[in-house]
Amino acid sequence: MPKIIITPLSGLEKTIRDHNPSHVVTLLSPEHMIDTPEGFHPERHLKIGVNDIADPALGTAPPHDDHIQSLLEFGRLWEASAPLVVHCWAGISRSTAAAFILMCDRLDHVRESEIAAALRKRAPHANPNRLMIKLADEALGRSGRMTHAIESMGPGTMADEGPQVHFPLAFGIL
After folding, report:
1. Domain positions in the chain
2. pLDDT digits (tens, 9 = 90+) for 27-59
3. Rounded distance, CA 11 to CA 135, Å?
4. Superfamily of domain 3-173
């Protein structure tokens, strides 16, 4: 079954070994960027050097439009014949935002609020990066629906690191 798997960096190697994904998205701060995992072609590994910042005025390397465009283009190249793995440092903010963005783009016939509810159900710890969501909302022309859906999720449960989360592409089983 086609799916997106969210994992923290600490679980990346095991996730790749156990699920044999065709594509990997890495969202890490530029100074902590990793090499392409062994056995992957660089064109199937998207590296986005971005800090987990929701307000661009508060730090360096915040998410911006180019990051979101790269994510969307990469996601559209994924044929979904094998899983796509999305990871950040802890598997809580940047990676859950990226998975939500990819799901909204892939399942454009499904309401954003339903995808957000499915994300909350599968990932109680999720705290998607609000700036990434805002930028994707604008890029996809969603008129604030993605932002509202994420805000409606409420805060995630406290966690230092999130567990592996499987997000199937088939809406009926979200």
Report:
1. 3-173
2. 999 999 999 998 889 999 999 999 999 888 878
3. 28
4. Protein tyrosine phosphatase superfamily (3.90.190.10)
